[in-house]
Each structure stands twice: as structure tokens, then as C-alpha cells.
UniProtKB/TrEMBL annotation:
Residues 166-242 form the Signal transduction histidine kinase internal region domain. The keyword Kinase does not apply. This is GHKL domain-containing protein. It comes from the Bacteria. The keyword Membrane applies. It holds the Pfam family His_kinase. GO terms for cellular component: membrane. InterPro entries: Bact_2-comp_sensor_kinase, HATPase_C_sf, Sig_transdc_His_kin_internal. The chain crosses the membrane at residues 12-33, 45-67, 79-101, 121-146. Keywords: Membrane, Transmembrane, Transmembrane helix.
Length: 354
């Protein structure tokens, strides 16, 4: 099914045709200038004009009717058949127009018979068909180039829109996932009438503010992401005794780099969910962040005791992989490893990428 061209595309095609056919006519006229006497030159201009009209008609008929109807639908035999018939009929009409309408205006030469016009194939080919084909070939070649360029741009645009929709879908999965875990934390505190309930609500407010506003941006600074991770860790730490949870952080920010929002936070959440949340023993989480003028490297390790939980690849890690591909294409590293009950994830991204 052929797409209906937009108003902008129609205007662009009209402007192009106006420029192309005018330039072609002027080029043909200028090439003959000075080679003939004044009277003969005027006649040649008229002949050139008559051929030019049918070049325009023929080229547009071939491209917008034959190519769109047969070539685009891969009906090549029909295209060839109708192309031959069309060129013959256009050449006959062009010669008939010239002999019986145009020439009587400036010459008294004997007119060719209608029979000769239809049957003198070599003359038609030499003086009319090849002229139509030459103009049509240049026109159709340029139209195919413009069409390819427009279709490529449209494909890129649609792919970008599709990817952005997928990214929004990923975020819509992540936010309820994170919110569900956090609300469970607050609920646990409220059941025990803990004095820390109000503090946890304040921490949650800061995190939700980050998700709702900065989380919708394409890029955030690494320092902003780390600040909200501090809030998240503080909120999670309310649930555990100091003996149950040990957090080690090594932060070296040597450059104001940017990353997609929620990238590091998702990994921290994942470490809590599959590390501390799955174990009743003391659990240690190590966070290492370093930025420089070339890269941002984030590494997180957590101890796990449940092998089955370590092998799970939940929403968080899947979303991270897809977000990295969306934002950086292939310009990133994302590694996951587990050894001696230590689950480790490392992400390395360019310092700035857009």
C-alpha cells in the first residue's frame, strides 16, 4: 500500500520540478545559442519547448504512474510492457502536436501524414522517444535519490520514536518496581511503630521527586545520581541492624560526567533485593564509582547466600542492558560476574555521549 504524501512533500516535489525542468530547458536553449541564425534559432527554441512539454509529461507519467503502480509492486513484466506502449504513444502525440499545432504557427512546410506519424518508428525513436527518455532518466534518477533519502530519514525517525517509547516503557516498569519495594519498607516500620517511620517517608519523598522530575530527563549528572543513592541506602538501612548490613563506598569524581537517570540506582536496589533481602546473615555491599574525562565506571558487589537468587535476572538488570543500548549503542561495557558468593556488576560508559 502506497503512502499518501504529506503537504510538505508535495510542495518540495513541486519546487524541485519547477527548478529541474526550467534548468533543463534553459540548458538546452543555451547550448544551441550562437550556432544558428536568428530566425532558425527561434524555430529551434519553439521545437525545444514542444519537446520539453512532453518530456515533463512523459517523465511524470513514468515515475508517478508506471513506477509507483508496477515497479514498487515488483510487477516488472507489466512495467516493461506499459513503458514501451507509453513511450510510443507519448512520442506519437508529441510529433502530432508539433506537426499539426506548433509548426503551422511559424512555417508553411508540408505536413507529415497521420499514417507516417504512427508508422515511421525510426524517426519517432530518433527525434522524439530518445528525447523523452533522456529527460525522464535524469528526472527519475533524482526522484529515486530524493525518495530514498526521505524514506531513510523517516525510518530513522520511526525507529527513534519506537526506541523512546520502549525506554518510557522501561521506566514505567522500573518506577512501580522500586516504589513497591520501598513502600514495603515503610509498611514494615509502621507496623512496629518505629520512630524511624517519619524519616523514611522524608527519604522516600526525595527519591520520588528525583524519579518524577530528573528521572524523565535523558541525562543527569553522576553526582545527582549518587546523592539519591545516599537517600536510598539510608532508607533501606532503616530496616536492618548495623550487624546485618555493611556498606562500603569508594567515590572518586574527577570529572562532571553524565549518565541516564536511575542507571546506578537500579543496581543498588538490585543489590539490596538479592543480597540483604535474601539473606538473614551479615551482608556486605561495596560501591565503587570513578569518573574521569573519558569514562564513568560504576562497580557494585554484594554477598549472596542463595544460588538460585544469584542466577535470577530480574526487571532491573534487563532494563539496564536495554537502556545502555538505547543511550550508548555499542559504546559501553556491562559485565556481570559471580564468584565465591560475591555478585558483581560493572558498568563503564563514556563521560559524555549524545
Amino acid at each position: 500500500m502506497m503512502k499518501t504524501p504529506s503537504g510538505t512533500q508535495i510542495r518540495q516535489t513541486l519546487y524541485f520540478q519547477l527548478f529541474f525542468w526550467t534548468a533543463l530547458f534553459l540548458f538546452g536553449t543555451a547550448r544551441m545559442y550562437g550556432e544558428y541564425e536568428s530566425g532558425a534559432f527561434k524555430e529551434l527554441v519553439i521545437y525545444n519547448f514542444c519537446h520539453w512539454i512532453f518530456q515533463i509529461a512523459g517523465a511524470n507519467f513514468i515515475y508517478f504512474v508506471l513506477i509507483r503502480r508496477f515497479f514498487d509492486r515488483k510487477r516488472y513484466v507489466e512495467l516493461l510492457l506499459y513503458l514501451v506502449i507509453s513511450l510510443y504513444l507519448i512520442s506519437v502525440i508529441n510529433r502530432f502536436f508539433l506537426v499539426y499545432i506548433a509548426e503551422p504557427l511559424f512555417t508553411n512546410e508540408v505536413k507529415d501524414s497521420i499514417s507516417d506519424i504512427f508508422t515511421d518508428i525510426p524517426y519517432l525513436l530518433t527525434h522524439y522517444t530518445f528525447t523523452i527518455i533522456s529527460g525522464a532518466f535524469i528526472f527519475i534518477s533524482i526522484m529515486f535519490f530524493i525518495r530514498y533519502k526521505d524514506e531513510k530519514e523517516q525510518t530513522i525517525k520511526l525507529q527513534k520514536e519506537k526506541t523512546e517509547l520502549e525506554l518510557q516503557s522501561l521506566k514505567s516498569q522500573l518506577n512501580p518496581h522500586f516504589l513497591f519495594n520501598t513502600l514495603n519498607n515503610i509498611y514494615s516500620l509502621s507496623i512496629s511503630h518505629s520512630d524511624k517511620t517519619s524519616q523514611s517517608i522524608s527519604q522516600l519523598s526525595d527519591i520520588l521527586d528525583y524519579i518524577l522530575y530528573k528521572g524523565q530527563k535523558k541525562w543527569v549528572s553522576v553526582s545527582d545520581e549518587l546523592a539519591i543513592i545516599e537517600d536510598y541506602i539510608a532508607l533501606e538501612s532503616l530496616r536492618y541492624h548495623d550487624e546485618r548490613l555493611k556498606i562500603q563506598k569508594y567515590i572518586r569524581l574527577n570529572s562532571p560526567n553524565t549518565i541516564p537517570p536511575l542507571l546506578y540506582l537500579t543496581l543498588v536496589e538490585n543489590a539490596f533485593k538479592h543480597g540483604v533481602g535474601k539473606s538473614s546473615e551479615t551482608t556486605e555491599i561495596k560501591i565503587d564509582v570513578e569518573t574521569n574525562s573519558q569514562h564513568s565506571v560504576f562497580t557494585i558487589e554484594n554477598i549472596f547466600s542463595d544460588q538460585k537468587a544469584a542466577n535470577e535476572k530480574g526487571i532491573g538488570l534487563q532494563n539496564i542492558q536495554r537502556q545502555l543500548q538505547y543511550h550508548y549503542q555499542e559504546h559501553f561495557t556491562f559485565s556481570i560476574s559471580q564468584e565465591n558468593n560475591i555478585f558483581k556488576v560493572e558498568i563503564s560508559t563514556p563521560s559524555y555521549y549524545d
